[in-house]
Design goal:
- The protein has ten helices and seven strands.
- A five-stranded parallel beta sheet has the order 2-1-3-6-7, sandwiched between helices. The protein has a two-stranded antiparallel ribbon with strand order 4-5.
- α7 crosses α9, α7 crosses α10 and α8 packs across α9.
- It is globular.
- It starts with a strand and ends in a 5-residue tail after the last helix.
């Protein structure tokens, strides 16, 4: 039996996942978590075969939580299940220790297949992502510019590209205006750009914002 923890901040989605997985005879949803704090508590308290982890959680970011999970439960396999596209976060998640990446648009059958594969020690990625990873390993590409950003920098890039001002971003993230401005400067430097307009154009073209 594959013991699964669902970590997602939407109760309706958690219920839907539980119902979909209940139709299998080898997968048991034995726990749920909605926040970073709850995930930490459940991971410390119990052993899990597979953790279905969303990127957006109450109180934090699933990818930033990955190293903690891997340290606490190195045998647990983490499958990222999110609304965000592969292009935005997949490579970042795999580098942080995820065993697979799946979007919430995937059919239930794909999710079940992915859970079984990562529980068995394998990895789950789409054919397109596998090709990108192969190119990276072969040195044929160095990856997209936004992949150089930290998780916080990527978050701020998305907010800038969505038209938020530095003051608004600072308020939303509980940071000082100076700190956000410093992040913006670093983002521009890492991506070889000079203006917010360039960042916005890039973000739209790469599906980081719609």
């Amino acid at each position: 039996m594959i013991k699964v923890l669902i970590a997602d901040d939407h109760p309706v989605l958690r219920r839907g996942l539980r119902e979909a997985l209940s139709e299998t005879d080898d997968i048991l949803v034995a726990g749920e978590a909605a926040s970073v704090h709850e995930v930490r508590e459940r991971v410390r308290a119990e052993r899990w075969d597979v953790i279905l982890l969303d990127i957006s959680l109450q109180g934090g970011n699933g990818i930033e939580l990955l190293p903690e999970i891997r340290k606490e439960r190195p045998d647990a396999r983490v499958l990222i299940l999110t609304v965000y596209s592969e292009q935005q976060y997949a490579i970042r998640a795999l580098r942080a220790g995820a065993a697979g990446f799946l979007t919430k648009e995937a059919a239930p059958e794909k999710l079940i297949e992915a859970i079984r594969k990562v529980a068995g020690g394998g990895r789950w990625v789409s054919p397109e992502l596998a090709e990108t990873l192969a190119s990276l390993l072969a040195g044929e590409t160095s990856g997209e510019p936004h992949e150089r950003l930290s998780n916080r920098e990527l978050e701020i890039l998305k907010m800038i590209a969505s038209g938020r001002t530095v003051s608004e971003i600072a308020k939303d993230l509980a940071l000082s205006v100076k700190t956000v401005s410093t992040h913006r400067t670093r983002i521009l430097h890492k991506m070889g750009m000079r203006t917010n307009a360039e960042l916005t154009h890039y973000a739209v073209r790469h599906g980081i914002v719609s």
